Structure formats: C-alpha cells, structure tokens
Amino acid sequence: MDRECASLLPSVCEVLADSGRSVPDDTSLEKLLDWFTELTEAGGSLLEACPCLLKFISTVVHNTASDPGVLSFTLRLTGLMAATEDGFKMLQEQSVLNQVFNLQHWQEAGLWDDPCLRIGWIQGLRSTLQHPKALRFFVQSDFIDSLLQLQTDTSLFVASAANQMLAHILLFFQKVLSAGSNGVSKTEEEDERRIHHSVTDLEPPAVTMETSAEYSAVVKGISEYLKESLIPKEKTKLHQSLQILKLLALLLAQAGPPLRDKLLQTVTDSLEQLVTAGCSRLTLPLMDVILAANRGHHDTVHTARAVRILLLPLDIITGPTLLGTNATADEHPFSVVEQLKSKTSCISMICVCLTNTPQITLTLPGVLPCPPVLIVTAVVSLLRICSGTSSSSSTVCSEVCRNVIGSGKVQKCALEALTALNSSPGVKEKISEVFTILIQYLDNPDSDPTVLHKSYQALVKWIRACTDLSLITDQLRQDLVEVVRKRACDMRWEVRDSTVEFLGHLAGVHVSVSSGEEVCDASEALLGGCCTTPLLREALQDTESYVRASAISALAKTLTHSWRQGAALTQDQTEIVSRLLEILSQDTEGFPRRAVVQYFISWFFSRSSHSPPSSSTSSTSLLMECVRTVLSQGSADLDWEVKVHTLELAELLLDQAFSAHRGYRKGSDAHRALQHPYGVVSDQAYALHTHTGTHTEGVQSDLAHVVEQGVISALLSGLVDCDRPVALKACRLLITLRETICPLSLGALDATAATATVSCELLGRGWGQEITKILGMEKSDRAREADVSAQRSSGAADGGGDSVTVSVCEVLRSLGLDERLDVLTQSSDHIHNSPLSLLQDILTASGAHTHPDTKPGQEVIVDCY
Amino acid sequence: MKLYCLSGHPTLPCNVLKFKSTTIMLDCGLDTTSVLNFLPLPLVHSPRLSKLPSWVSKDGTINLEKELKECAGRVFVDSQPEFCLPERELLDLSTIDVILISNYHCMMALPYITEHTGFTGTVYATEPTLQIGRLLMEELVKFMERVPKAQSATCWKNKEIQRMLPGPLKDAVDVWTWKRSYSMQEVNSALSKVQLVGYSQKVELFGAVQVSPLSSGYSLGSSNWIIQSHHEKVAYVSGSSLLTTHPQPMDQSSLKNSDVLILTGLTQMPTANPDGMLGEFCSNLAMTIRAGGNVLVPCYSSGVIYDLLECLYQFIESANLGTTPFYFISPVANSSLEFSQIFAEWLCHNKQSKVYLPEPPFPHAELIQTNKLKHYPSIHGDFSSEFRQPCVVFTGHPSLRFGDVVHFMELWGKSGLNTIIFTEPDFSYLDALAPYQPLAMKCVYCPIDTRLNFHQVSKLLKEVQPLHVVCPEQYTQPPLTQSHRSDLMLELQPPPMPYRRCSVLNLPFRRRYERVYILPELANSLVPSEIKPGVSMATVSAVLHSKDNKHTLQSVPKPPPVPPSKKRKRVMEEPPVVLAPKPLLSGAVPLEAFLATLQKHGITEVKVEETADGHILHLQAEDTLIQLEEDGTHIVCDNNEPLRTTLRDLVLRFLQKL
Predict the structure, then answer these.
(1) Angle at A433 between CA A428 and CA A435, to 5 degrees
(2) Which residue in A27, A561, B126, B381 has the fewest CB atoms around it within 10 Å?
C-alpha cells in the first residue's frame, strides 16, 4: 500500500463508520473490498498495514444504526482479515470475531432480516474458513444449523451463497485432511510462512487430531441433514430438495473418495426414493447429481449404469436399438416414458442425453451397451423424427415422438451431438448416412438459420474426420451442390453468411480423392470446383456486409492453395482482386474492408512463405501493387480494426525484409494476442517462415524498399492515430524497426551510417504534420505563411502545406517511441481505477453529502466507472 | 338440427345447415381437381398436343378415339375440362333460404347452385369476396371460352367403360356430376343474388336466427360466420389464418361459447410452413435468374400473389435482381391488382394506416410504377412485343390445364435452365405436370397455404371451447402419405364428428329454451311475489301468439258481451267462463312452529310420527290426522268442517301465495 493511500484510509474508515453520514454506493464498497483482497493476496497483512481497520470493525459492529451495506462489508472484511491464522488470532484476542459473527446479536438488533447482512455473514465466514482454527471456531459456535437453515433462504442469493459455503467447508477441509494424513511432518515455521503468504493457496495447513474430529462431525451433520431433507415433505414444496440436489451435484463433482463415498452412502436411499417419486421438476437436477456422481468415478459397474440411464430417452424415442431388446422392465420405468410424454421434460431430457452422447462414446468400450456406431445411427434417426420425415420404430408411443417433431432445440442439440460424434471410434462408415440427413436438413425449408449453421458445421467436421470421401455417392454430391446453391440465395442473410462460411471451411479441408494418393481440398472434391468461386463472387455483391466479409474470407481460403503453388492468376482471380480493392475504398461497412486487408495478408503470407520474394511473376507484381494500395488506403481508413490489420500487413513486409538481419525481433507472436475478438480473423496460422534471401545488399536497400512500399508511412500514420490499439501496434513495430536499422549499441554503427541515407517523405498535412510537430521541426516563416494562405484558399483540400523529406533513422530516434509505448500500454482508465482515486471518491462523496449547503436533489452521485 | 354435406373436399366445402326452420348453405366450393384428367387447352397451336395418339384398351375392345388421348404415358380426356360439382341430389336446392360465403375461393360453384335449380334465396358475402370472386369466375370463363372445344366427352363416363380405363381415370369418383364451366351470363345472374355484408353486421333470417360474418384473416374480405338464435350458437369456421399477411386479422373471441363449431378449410399442407415456403420460393427464383433461366409461377390471380409480390419487392433488391422483369398475365390482372388497393377497410392494420399516407397499401403499385412488374390480359398483344428474358411470369391456371400457363409450359419446358415454382396448394404438382412429361425444366414445389394448421387449430379450439366440433373426416386421421404423423390430426374431447360427401349429420344439440315476449299491458297486470330474495314469481294467463318465429304473450281477449237471445241453441257455443285461478302455494310448514300454533288454538294433544316423506300429526282429541309432506299437506278430518277450515287456515299461514 502506498503512503498516500495509507494516510487516507483512516478518514475513509471514519466516514464509513459514521452512521450519520450517507454511505457510498455498493460498487465503491465492492471495489474497496477487492483492493483489500488484492493486498492480502499480495502477501501483506492488512492488520499490520492498516491498524485503523480493527477499530473500524468494532465501531461498526457495535453501532446497530449502521447501514446494512456497511455492515455487510464489515463482515466480509473481517472474514478476509481472519483468513490467516495470525489475523484470526489477533481478531479473536480482541474478541472482535465473536462479536462480528454473533448471530444472536444481529437478530436482536433486527438487522438479520436484511438479506444483505445474511450474505455478508456467510461470505465473511467463508473467507475465514481457511485454517483449522477457523473450523474449530465454526464448530464451537454451532453455526452449522444456522447455515443449513440459510440454504433455503427466501433470498436466492443468500441460499446460493449458503450452498457454496457448505460445499466449501466439506471440500476445503477434505483436502486439508487428506494431505495432513500423509504423515509428512512440517515445521511450524514453514506453515506459518505459507499461510502468511497466501490465503488462497490451497496447500493444506497443519492438521491436528481435533481438526479431524471436528471435520468428521461437520461431515456427519451435513450429510445427515442432506439425507433427511432431500425428500420433500409435501409435493408442492420442492425448493429445499432442489437446493440440496444442487449442493450434492456441486459436492460430488469435486469430492475425493472418502468424502464422496460417505456422501453417496448416506444419500443413495433418499435419491432412489426421489427418483421413484417421479417429480418432473426435480428430474434435471437429479440428472445433474447422477452425472456428477459418475464424473471421475471409474468403476465400470456404475459407469455402465449411468450410461444406460443417459441413453434411455434416446433409446425410447428412436426404438430399442441402443440398449438391446433385452432392456428389462426396470430400465424402461414407467415414469421415464410418462415424463417423455410431457413436452417440456421430454425436450430437456433428450437434450441432456444428446449433450452427453459424444462423451459416452469415448468411455471404455466395455462400459458401452452398444458400439458407438449405433449411437450415431440413433442420433441420425432422431434427426429424421425431428424433421417429421420418418416415424420411430419405437413401439412405446407416438405421443413421445410428437414432442420432438419440429423442435428446434432438439434439432440443434442433436446436430451438436452429431458434430462431436465424428471422432468416435468406428463411425466413419456412417458418413454417407450422416451426409444424407445433413443435406436433408440443409434443404428443409423450415430449418431455422441456427439449425442450418450447425448442419454446415457438422458437415465440415465429418469431412475433416473422414479424409476418404469415396463413400459419398455422386447423387449426394449433386444434392449438396444444389442445396448450397439454393442457400446462397436465401432470403435470410444469416443463412447466406453460413453458406459462404461453409464454402470457405470446405476449401480449408484437405482430403484424398478416391485412391488416397492425390490430395485436394474438399470443396473441389465434393462440389466439383465449379461452384465455389462463382457463388463467392456473387456473394461479394451481397447487400449484407457480414456476408460480403465472409465471402472475402472464404475466397482467401479457397485460393490459398493456388497461391502456395505460385500458380498464375486466372482472369477470374484478377477480377476478384480489383473488386476487393473497390470494396476497400468504397464499402460503407467496416467488416468487408477488414476482410479485404486480411485477404491480402493471407495472400502475401502464403505466397511469401513458399516462393522467393525475388520471383517476379505477374501474380507477384499484382500482389505488390495491391499491397501498396492496401497500405495507403488501409491506414487512412476510419475503422480502427482495418488500420490494425493494415499494420499487420506492414509487419509481414517488415518480417520479410529484415528477418534475416541481426537484432530483428519478429512480432508475429505478439500480434496474435492483440487481435480483437470481433475482428474477422482468418484461420491461417501464422507459422514462422524462413527467409531464403541472404544478407547481401544490406539493410539499406531493404529499408529503401520498405519505404517505397509505403510501410513507413503506414507505421507513422498509425503512431499518431487516435485509436490506442492502432498507435500501440505502430509504436511497437517502429521500435522493432529502430532496433534493427539503427540500434544504439556500438557494434551496429556501420549499418546505421549506411541506413541514415534512406529517407521518407512527410506531407505537410494530416499525420505528416503531426509527426513533423512531434519532431519539433520548425517551419520557415515563408512556409508558415504559405500554409496560412493555403488554408484561406478554398483549394486547401489537396495540399495543406509543404512536404518534408527526413531520414528514417532520424525520425525513429527522435519520436520518443519508448515514452510513447509506456503511455500507450497503460489502459485509458488507469488513473480513475487506482485505489487512491477510490478512496478520494468516497471521501469527496461523503463530504458533498454532509455539506450543510447541499440541497436535496443536488447530490453528487459517485460514478465509479 | 341437421347438417347436409354436399362436398367431400375439406377446403372447398359446401354444407347445408337446417336450423330452426331455416335452411342455410355454408359455402359452395367448386372442386376443380377433376380438370387434371383432361388434356391442356393450348392458347397457341401446339403440334405436340394436336398429334396425340388415341387411347385403345389392350384388347382393343374399347376405342374412344375422340374422347381419350394418350400423352406422356397417361390417358387424358380430350374435351373441355369439367369440374366436380357439389352434390345436388341430397336435398332440394330450391328450399335453400340463404347461402353464406366465407371467401372468394369457396364460391366458385355458385352459378351451379343458384341457376336452373329453382333457388330463390339470398347470397350473403362481403364486398371483396364478391368482387374478387367475380374476377376469378370471369377469368375461368375467359380461359375456357378462348379455346372453344365443341366436343363434350361423355362415353368414357359409362360405368362399364370407366372400370376398364387405366390410371387415375378409373378411380375418379362421381364423374356423372362433372360439368363444364358456366357462362358469363350465368355468373352475372348468380352474383346478382348476392347481398353485401360487413364484418360483425347482424342479419336477421325470418326472425328465427341471426347470421353475422367475422374476419377470418385468410384473404381480403374472408369471413367465418356465426349463426345464432337467442339460446343457441353455431360457429362456421372456414379458411382462416393467424399469420400476419395482408388481410384483417382473425376475430377469434367472437367464436367463443358455441354449441356447435363446424370446422373446414384448414391448411392443405400441414407440413409446409408458409414462411419456409416463401423463403424457398425466393431462393429458387433468385438461383434460376442468376443462372440465366426463366421462372414460371402458376397461380390464381388473387390471394397469395399479393404476398408473393410484396415479398419479392423486398427481396429483389437484396438479391440483385433489380433488372429482371416480372410479368403478371391474366384476363383480370389489372383489376385484381387495382382492387386489392381499394379495399382499405378489409386490410390488416398496418396496411390500413397506409391509406392515410400518399402511398398505396400494397407495394406492388411501386413495382408497376417502376416498370419492374408489368401486367397483361394475355400473351397475345402487347406482351409479345415487350417480352424479355430471363424473366418471372405469374399466370394461371395453377392446374396447368388451361390459361396462359399452358403456353409457357410448352415454351420453357424443354430447357433445364428454367424453373416452374408451384405456390398454390390446390393441385398435386406431379399430376399437374403429367401431360408435359418428359420435362427438362426444374420443378420446385413450395405450396403456400396460410390457413390454420393443426397446432394452431387445437390452440384455437382450446380457447373458444365449443361444445361440439364437426369437421371433414380427413381431419380426424393423419394424412394418408404421412400415417406416422399423429400430430397432423384433430384430437378433441369429445371427439369431433366427422363428415364426408353425402353425409347427413344430426347435430347433438337440443333446443331447450325459446324466447317469448310479453306485451306491456299484460306485464302491467302481473302481481309478482318474492319467493326468495331477488326472485319473484307471478302467474300469467294469456294467449300465446306465434308468427315469423316470434312468440308473444297477449292478454286474454275479454269475452264479447253475450248477445241477447232468447234461445240458447247450443251450450257449447258459449265462451268459457274464465275463473279467477286459485293462488299457487309455495313454501314448507315448519313443524315446531306449527305445533306451537296448534297449541295456541287449543289443540294440545298431538302425537307426531315421522314418516319417509315428512310427519303425521295425530290430533288425538279431535281424531284428526294432518299429513305434512314435502309437496303436499292433507288434513283428514271427518265430519268436522269448521275444524278442517281452521286447520287449513293455520297451514296456509305458513305458506306463501302467488
């Protein structure tokens, strides 16, 4: 904690403890608590750093007129301080702890009714419970009953927090005990140090016999309670059972063997009773518990049973194929069929089943009731039933099937399951069947856009998994072409977008054609190659910008292969290029423009990684011409992402020019992390490529070339950009460049001397002017006069002033890049987010509130953001 | 109450309801699917169709050279197409009082019913129904009259011969009821009997029942009907739609509390969702045009075409089809497009509000203005000089047997670049295409039927809760081709009553009450007495007067003064002496209170005996019995009239008199 904060904290405590003053809003308190947590986690002792907190706590706790928000804060703060054994001891010695967590005290003061206080109590206790002493305190204070009561609190937040807390006690001390029982003796010192250092560190503190006994008592108490209260007393009061099921799921998912066995042993009877009661509202949470019990539980008997139960709904709906015809009556419990007859529970049960099928097929073969291929068949049949095209072979009832016909939710779940099933063992033979149903879904006029999207995804995944496509008949290929053509003309842009994306993905998959020798991309193998490019070209004209953007990305993927091979450009491709440049300069939406820059990035990348840069085919010269245009237009774009992508292209050019030089650090790794999540990102991996050229002509000519391409202009304009990510990226690249061409180290002086002669031009307007200003280059009086007169004249548009020619090295050295980088790396709100500012805010706000002249309605509302 | 079912077609119904002495025909749909058995009528001479071989049975015994032709492997009747009429023998059509029309598709058989049958009643329909119905009839007549065929084929209808014929002809039913199209004169005469009504307008029929049309949301002016008396309500639901298309939305709430709901006109395509079909239509259209082909859309000149044009209006921009011409060819194309714009009050709210703006409700006006949509009465004339390909043509008839569409089939059928898109659900597209096979043209079937589907109708019925539902038998089982789809049928409790062609149903429905009016002076003379709080009763003596299904209670006429006559010829002629009726008693005699009263009057020795129906009081001193029962009191008292009278008066004290 810095000095300033430490000096402000006492007054802040005073403000908070004064019930007469109005309280800062919740977010301020939350932030304050966050800050304290950070301090604790960093290894400091709060009590030592700010002794005023102790006084604060006892003042607030004794003042029943305190605001519930502040009280809640205080409880949580106390918990935080008691999380270390030291802190705990000290608080206990001061008898603060008993006072703070004394339930009776709060109840008598009438404050317990406020959920805010109850939640503070729970969370405070929870923070405390990090060491055996706290557990003893918890047990001795007899908090367990109160906590169990809170589990069914009227406030959902309180109930949930109580559940979390119960889970925490059982799980945390379980770890402690199991580690402690290993018999490794540790010196007290060691423990002291560790606890002192970190409260969240899960390494177990010292364990004593008492701890173990206390823990057992807690486990016993809780599990007995679970057993007793699991069965609802009345059919209508399911709240408690629901909460307990949630807790059980939470516990079973994480508990280790002794605890887990103990829990299962205690509650199994009650669970079974609950299952037979057939309460449909409890079905889903019950299934969660069963899943959790199964997780990590590798005993084959239980797993096999769980698998059978999970597959039961699918088996019932699609006809008994999965579990075998000898599925006994007890596996077809009447209640399951009954539940499937209700639409809502049917849909949720089948969805749970579907979500788990991929995982099921990956479990041990001995556990599966049937080979994975049958599960694929069942999912395919379910999809058929869902689309209404086929009936179930199930004799159970058409009533159940009726619930899933046309259900978008089931369709989506089934498609997801099918997608994930592609990698299950032995299912490849099903590809033709899978293709048929997916094409049918793509063709179905009633499929909604999400269903279509998922169908496309499933197709791509299956094609990727089955590299041999000889199983796909010509008829299926033809159907696929037809349906893709149709969907490319769909009324809904989402569908057109998915279709275009699909074409791109397909082009990215490599498959072997028939014999397995020749490899080509899947779009050529399946769609015959004559369909993709025309459809994508058409999509460049789409009215929806997302579709245009996707079409551009897809085109890039489609052409990557021919770029890599250095094939000459076709007429078609040349036309596409000019259309793309048109989009970059004219499209009103950002997405397509971003995609265009990405297109050239991947073109440049695929080409440069496979052919020497010196090869001057027509394709290369067109590319270089385009790159120049993209750099100049892209860096002048209005969209910051276009500009960032443009800088990425510039980076590639730098990489190409200098990667063989000493001292050049490639930024490719860094730039992946910088990409914006919403940007159009090509899947292209930016693998490291080796530069084949040798260090012959020296830095000088490379630099001159880079300047000529417009890279330097792009970087300089980016540096003074008002969008921080752009400026940051440009700044980093410029620093890299500076390190390469004019390093300050002595050994590189020779090179510096040579490169100093390379210069670039700064225009007297726009970014050029900005750079000139930074460089502090004084204009001559004459030039300034000219400038003024140019501004006066109406023709100022194309020439604001004189251009200046400067040495690149000179510029790089004089821009103060390192200082800029420092400023740019700090987030824009770093000042407002500091703890100091928080403390000041609280003080200011309270000052404003208590100011005698403040009239009501004129209050200053603290804006923490 | 009886229902006579004259049509077996669930979406082209024709039912007759006998209800309270009125005979009401509900719709008169014309089943035109019969035309599929006939050869197409080409507008332009077609060498292919004119050179078809005659059909000869395998053994050569049957040779109807003039009547049957073989085409594309099937046998067709070579004559003017004929339609399957509603049943005309089931009841005397001249007894029909009124015909209620629900939409313009369901009135095409009107001339067959109102002309030459002795029909003297009235037809009720909304204005758009009448006007657009007239257009459709006019179109039909023109289609037929443009290609006159003198010959009428009848020999094949002979039962013995029909039995020997192949394919669908053999299985055609009721072929003797098939008739050629009517004439324009008959149309005019039939339509002159139409009386216009507005939604929710109440029309009295002979004082017995009231009929009223409700918006059904399916087409311009389409209606469901409520037929009700004071105590009974029958709802007739014909083609209805809950989708948001151009017409006014469906009025559902007025259908509530019906005793019987007659349900017809559900979607013919329960598995084809209109939105999906519309999407399908657009993408296939765009795909064809982009590939340089033409699109042919066989359709009716009114109805879904308005929605199609609206949808295309939005779509052509986004699909870059701006320069492709759209042609609408029909003898009534112009009127149809213009009529749709003027029926503002019948449109959905959204379109209604446009009437107050300087723009027409339907965007097809703009398509016409910008020359993107052009309409022509026929392929002859202006069209042939302005025709430009690739293009989209909307034209009739959707059966592909007559109308301008026949020409386009001959013209475009041979190229795989072209596409025919079926949007009307009335005809099986494979049957429609049969005489044109083999066909290179691409066929897309996206029937757009906006009428209620089974899901919607079950929801509707749950809401309006009719006591009984009557429907075509087709709705009570899954479709034949999709027998596993048990969700595509009506499941109700109690189960719906199914009907088929020629069924006569006794509707399960008892008339329990009748409304009777009472004249003011008579009402004035009544003396009501309150029998329990809020309920009063009075006795009435009056004469019941019934006329025009109205019942009135009038005062009993005073007996005319006895004419002075010396001789009384016959006693019987004397008017009956009207005695003042004795008051009616009500109430019960409370035992304890009665005993107390007896005691007050000196009767002390009373033995009370409990019986099944009440009590017997034995007045021992007087040797008298009083039987107090639920519905009567007897005093058994021999030879002591004063005592009996006293006792009677005591009993009466406890009872109320009317």
Answers:
(1) 90
(2) B381
Each residue's pLDDT tens digit, A49-72: 788 888 888 888 888 788 888 889
Query: Taking CA atoms, what residue in B is nearest to A395?
Result: B484
Give the closest-approach CA distance of B282 to chain A in angstroms. Answer: 7
A850 vs B416, more confident: B416
Helix/strand number for chain B, H first, E second: 18, 35
Mean pLDDT of chain A: 79
Question: Is the whole model's pTM more than 0.80, yes or no?
Answer: no
Contact (CB<8Å) A399/B486: yes
Residues B628/B593, Cβ–Cβ less than 8 Å: no
Q: Are B80 and B144 in contact (CB under 8 A)?
A: yes
Residue B290 and residue A489: Cβ atoms within 8 Å?
yes
Encoded amino acid at A509, one letter: V
8 Å CB contact between B263 and B469: yes
Pairwise CB contact (< 8 Å): B279 & A398: no
Return phi, psi of residue A223, to 5°: -70, -35
A-chain residues within 8 Å CB-CB of B482?
Answer: 388
Beta strand segments in A181-340, E = none
Task: Count Cβ neighbours within 10 Å for each residue of B443-467 and write b for 16 or more, e otherwise.
Answer: bbbbbbbbbbbbebbbebbeebebe
State how far residue A767 is from chain B, nearest Cα, in angstroms.
Answer: 39
Nearest to B277 among A445, A490, A492 (CB): A445
Q: What are phi and psi of A553, to 5 degrees?
A: -60, -40
Using alpha carbons, select from A537, A507, A551 the residue that is nearest to residue A525: A507
Q: Find where tokens 């490794």 sit.
A: A184
Chain B residue with CA closest to A443: the answer is B280
Q: Is B487 in CB contact (< 8 Å) with chain A? A: yes
What domains sit in chain B, N to C, each tagged with a CATH number?
2-41+59-267+451-506 (3.60.15.10), 274-445 (3.40.50.10890), 585-657 (3.30.310)
- Quick check: B287 and A444 CB within 8 A? no
DSSP letter assigned to residue A744: S
Q: Is A539 helix (H, G, I), strand (E, B) or coil?
A: helix
Sheet containing B543-547: give its strands across: B516-518, B550-554, B543-547
Of B173, B140, B168, B141, nearest to B157 by C-alpha is B173
B273/A193 Cα distance (integer angstroms): 71
Report the SS3 class of residue B205. Answer: strand
Q: Is B256 on the interface with A (CB under 8 A)?
A: no
CA distances from B132 to A736, B335, B342 (A): 78, 9, 12
Shortest CA gap B308–chain A (Å):
13
- How far is the C-alpha of B397 from the C-alpha of B72, rounded, in Å? 20
* Mean pLDDT on A605-612: 68
pLDDT band at residue A860 under the 50/70/90 scheme: very low
